[in-house]
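re: ur question from yesterday

yeah so i grabbed the chain u mentioned. its 319 aa long if i counted rite. heres the sequnce exactly as i have it in my notes:
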Amino acid sequence: MSEVDFGGRTVAVTGANGLIGRHVVAALTAGNARVVEISGPASEGSGVNDGEGVQVDLRDPDAAAAALKDWDMVIHLAARAGGIQFQKGSHLDVFADNASINFNVISGALSGRAEAILIASSAVIYGPGGDLSEEDDLVTSRSERATGYAWSKVTAEMQGRWASEAGLRSVIARFTNVYGRGGSFRESSSTVIHALVKRAIDAGPGGRLVVWGDGSAVRSFIHVEDAAAAVALLLKTGETGEAYNVSSREAVSIAQLAETVRTVVDPSLEISYDVDRPSGPLRRTLDVSKLSALGFEASVGLEEGIRDVAEAYRRSTGA
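ran it thru and got these structure tokens back, copy pasting raw so excuse formatting
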């Protein structure tokens, strides 16, 4: 897919030092955008981005408004996020922080001179499992998936739609499992690919790769470079008030994923399953027809992407 040309437009990116944010900044810069990277006060520089940078506590409404008032477009990626273990943690704290950040960023963009905002959402907002389209039902208060993180994304989407009614072009990106260079390898916050790669490398030759659940759950994934390309495309061409699933078309079981990790890292590893650990719904994949209609297709295959993650982890540990 060719780069999206922003013609010198100014774009603010919240969460710029996160997994997706780092690559979004690179994609925007390559697309001739002037980028300002907005990160939290404790964030470390990524060493990847080329844009201007400011550190802001986005839970502070005045600070958020000041940081967002002068930009043509805003990409809102900032959030407290993580994998299954994280999402089943402190629901109230996660919701409170994310709801505050979302409200302040969207309000700041609306009160400033921004003409458009892209809001990052997630597949966790869907209530049922299956092959999910943007029209499927969302999580309800009675659902076991009603985590603080999921609800913070649902409310962010609604705020974005209301902002679109007030004249700010608001586009929602519902991400599947995003992985790639720059992701977290901490057990408390890593997502499934990063966790499996870390366990595989740490196990050493002939060791045991432990997989959470029985391996039957089916998921879709997207490499972060593809996710960043989708963000740039949606910011430029997405329809206001609309949500778009962001995923590859490739769906695999967790057992197949573990086999691919073993192939990439070390074929001598033994795979075992910890069925007492959470594995989530049996099937959760995203229909990307709506995004594809805008001209998007993912380009990084799963094995290639896992090699990228393995190389990043080895480099981080000196292995």
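noticed a couple things. The CA atoms of residues 23 and 134 lie 25 Å apart. also The radius of gyration is 19 Å.
anyway ttyl
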